[in-house]
Amino acid sequence: MSKDGRLFATGSSSGCVKIWTATGSCIWTFEAHSDMVVSTQFSTDSQMLASWSHDRRIKIWNLARGVCKNILECRGESILALSFSEDDRFLVAGSYDKNIDLWDTIHGSLLRRFEGHSDGVSALTFSSSRKWLVSGSILRGEIKIWDLGHGECLQTFIGHDDSVSAVAMPSVGSRLASSSCDGSIKVWDLSGRPMLIRTFHSRVLPTSLAFNSAESDSLKTNIGTLCIDQQGLIDTQPTYAFFEDVTLRGWGVDSKSRWILKGGNRVFQLPKKYHPSHYCLQQSTLAVGTCSGDLLLAHLPSRSLHNIENSLTGRAFPGYGWDIKYEQERAMMVLEQAESPE
Fold this sequence. Notes:
By secondary structure, this protein is mainly β.
């Protein structure tokens, strides 16, 4: 989903990429790749989309004109992470072969290759100043901080007990957030040597992180927004508590992916048919993919659900996207409101 919550992208096993609006309208269909689309990534300004396929190509799409802007030929193995710089001038791709490639999005040229991880690179983010690049690995939670200009590794530390699933830095300040397949989200101070500030735990896999654009004391995740600086939230010993046990701001999803939360309280219950296999939350828009191949959009303040349901049985690719067919049936349904939080 785009950072402004207005657009989202889906990729199929046939290589097709679709761009949707938050009201459920398909505005672009790209016959993008010759093999399955593995991942997509919107640019910071939501004007471009990068798509990656098993055909070993990254394509950058101009969403205003609906055309392919650049084709990046990848030399390595499967891409595990994509990230645009804040000004969208650069794109980095982390691969299973332990390398990171830095691309110029205007000319489509490869500028630099970063080498040094012990295993595949699963998470990437730029600092707002474009001075640093932060990367996370699928081995032992390894995190590296790179000098973007010279390509040198400045810091290496072990942040988690399992693969790093996402990393994020705020627009202002020296904080770093990282999440892992071990269920933890950690916040670090990078003003000197990396120092742990907060640790949160969840049974829901944290897959996306972003600092609040206005302040660095809150962290947006795929489940909800965490209050970083609230006293008493740090865990000195891992407890793997649910996210409901810590303070959440705004909209979120509960640990079993069955309830939509607001401020940590249950508000709407998703019908059993629409329990998600994968979802993305941005501001007040929730995109849900189900195991049956259905794709849903929830506009949370209005308590309505836009449902785009396959007329043919679709296939789900957990963690990658959904196989959406061309024929669509559209329906509206009202989410059930909880009588009272439990």
